[in-house]
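re: ur question from earlier - yeah i can do the single chain one, its not a big deal. heres the input i used so u can compare w yours
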Amino acid sequence: MVSRSQLQTLGFSRKAIEQRLRNGRLHPVYRGVYAVGRAELPKKGRWIAALLACGDQAYLSHRSAAALYGIGEERNGVIEISVRQRIGRRHRGIEVRRRLSLPSTDVGAVERIRVTSPVRTLLDYATLEPPNRVERAINEADKHDVIDPDALRKALDACTREPGVKKLRKVLDKHTFRLSDQELELLFRPIAAQAGIPVELTKVILSDFEVDFFWPSLGLVVETDGWRYHRTPSAQSRDALRFQEHTASGLTPLRFSHWQVKHEPNHVREILRRTASRLRPT
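and the output i got, formated as tokens:
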């Protein structure tokens, strides 16, 4: 991918450029931007061409930035770009947003493609997409090691008035909500009692793992998680081993998030009731 100005800097005259356009060595993509050798472009080639067309202060942003990070998708093939300069000519298929105050900490490059930072991308994405897509983007960002929910939440503390913050916080509160041990027990005990299985034991060691709640009479183990989505590889391996040990010992493990215990008690109660009904001897 090359621009007319780059070719001129390399010493190509207007006539030489026109000749290469005629013989198929250059293919116009946008005004003043050419594909070299062939006209078909992969997605990354389209992004590079769009950035060349919009100037050296242009960055992929919003849905296009999310697509580059692998956490979202573009709409209708439109490339979204933010520029830190006055907007010049417009190009078909490119949506340009003028953002003169875009700080340098909010931009960077991925595979030599200029793009807004993960935090800025998620903030922008949240202004355009419904909560379920924003939630999916956060989960994908964690999955692909773009940014984890904890780091994102901390970053939002520095931009409390930014558009998109409210929606991101609402999703993150569900994912990273955490109760203290005392709060958890105070909330969980009445839920279990209402399900017909008053708590028998708390914070006991089973197969070298500490569990939150245990019913020896039912062989039921309940553990809770305050970090619903962000799991490091070592934490994932330990969780798998924990589940395997409990199951091999003849126990029935259940897992609830702290958010569910606090905000979805009816769901927790129903799952406990149905599980206990299955485990009780006939």
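The longest helix spans residues 233-248. not sure if urs matches, ping me
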